[in-house]
């Protein structure tokens, strides 16, 4: 399945044969003028599209173990700070490279590793509850893969049981797992929906995400008010009456306790 890619609104020579953006001199042998290449990279960042439903990963993504990855990221992040001119002997700064490295591997990007995927235990739908189940306002905290700054918002997920149900917290866990990756919101929405369909053995799944992108609010256009909504409706949720019922639940005020 293809998302609206970046190639449709960027010049035809802006992507290589494998759909990857071209950054300056490219290994395929052609090069772009530096300023033009920079502009292109910015445009791809702003387009917020993605080329595939799968997070682009190299086949050797897990050839290094986590401890070694932390050591290497620490080394490289220290280099970045040093290039910025920061004094790495300062008490406040000297622990930052390792802190960032551990945060990347153990926390915010831990969802890149399939070993961390939540195991979903299915239960029989003993109550024969055949209506939709909606869990709304699930916290979403992910990172924009174009700028490596947070995207924060809420996810609403819904399904109609095909005979099996899963624990409510597993819905949160699935959202969390796919969020802990460099992401674009469109891909995150679809990855959550596809996993729910697979786990729940049904096409009757919907996912809506409403989120604020710090790359939009703290840089570039500096729009602090806008939020971005993405949605995936499958099976019965593609039908208008079911979709409208879901949207009613999602837009009504949440209970306060
Ligand atoms: Zn961004």
From TrEMBL:
Biased composition (Low complexity): 1-18
Enzyme Commission identifier(s): 3.5.4.16
Residue ranges, annotated region (Disordered): 1-29
Domain named GTP cyclohydrolase I: residues: 73-246
Pathway: Cofactor biosynthesis; 7,8-dihydroneopterin triphosphate biosynthesis; 7,8-dihydroneopterin triphosphate from GTP: step 1/1
Alphabetically ordered keywords of this record: GTP-binding, Hydrolase, Metal-binding, Nucleotide-binding, One-carbon metabolism, Zinc
Residues that hold Zn(2+) according to the record: 144, 147, 215
MF-aspect GO terms: GTP binding; GTP cyclohydrolase I activity; zinc ion binding
Superkingdom assignment: Bacteria
Pfam families from the UniProt entry: GTP_cyclohydroI (PF01227)
GO terms of biological process kind: one-carbon metabolic process; tetrahydrobiopterin biosynthetic process; tetrahydrofolate biosynthetic process
GO cellular component terms, semicolon-separated: cytoplasm
Catalytic reaction annotation: GTP + H2O = 7,8-dihydroneopterin 3'-triphosphate + formate + H(+)
Tagged with keyword GTP-binding: yes
InterPro entries listed in its UniProt record: GTP-CH-I_C/QueF (IPR043133), GTP-CH-I_N (IPR043134), GTP_CycHdrlase_I (IPR001474), GTP_CycHdrlase_I_CS (IPR018234), GTP_CycHdrlase_I_dom (IPR020602)
Subunit structure: Homopolymer.
Family designation: Belongs to the GTP cyclohydrolase I family.
Name used for this protein in its record: GTP cyclohydrolase 1
């Amino acid at each position: 399945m293809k998302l609206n890619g970046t190639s449709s609104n960027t010049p035809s020579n802006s992507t290589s044969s494998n759909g990857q953006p071209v950054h300056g001199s490219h290994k395929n042998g052609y090069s772009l003028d530096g300023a033009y290449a920079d502009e292109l990279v910015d445009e791809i960042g702003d387009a917020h599209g993605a080329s595939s439903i799968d997070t682009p990963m190299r086949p050797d993504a897990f050839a290094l173990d986590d401890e070694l990855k932390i050591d290497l990221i620490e080394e490289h992040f220290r280099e970045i700070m040093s290039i910025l001119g920061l004094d790495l002997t300062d008490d406040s700064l000297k622990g930052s490279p390792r802190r960032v490295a551990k945060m990347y591997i153990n926390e915010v990007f831990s969802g890149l590793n399939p070993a961390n995927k939540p195991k979903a235990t299915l239960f029989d739908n003993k109550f024969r509850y055949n209506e939709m189940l909606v869990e709304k306002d699930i916290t979403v905290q992910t990172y924009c893969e174009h700028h490596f700054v947070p995207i924060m918002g809420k996810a609403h997920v819904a399904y109609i049981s095909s005979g099996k149900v899963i624990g409510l917290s597993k819905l949160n866990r699935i959202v969390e797992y796919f969020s802990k990756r460099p992401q674009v919101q469109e891909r995150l929405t679809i990855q959550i929906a596809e996993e729910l369909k697979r786990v729940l053995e049904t096409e009757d799944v919907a996912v809506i995400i409403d989120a604020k992108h710090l790359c939009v609010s703290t840089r570039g256009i500096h729009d602090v008010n806008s939020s971005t909504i993405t949605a995936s409706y499958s099976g019965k949720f593609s039908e208008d009456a079911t979709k409208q019922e879901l949207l009613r639940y999602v837009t009504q005020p949440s209970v306060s306790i």
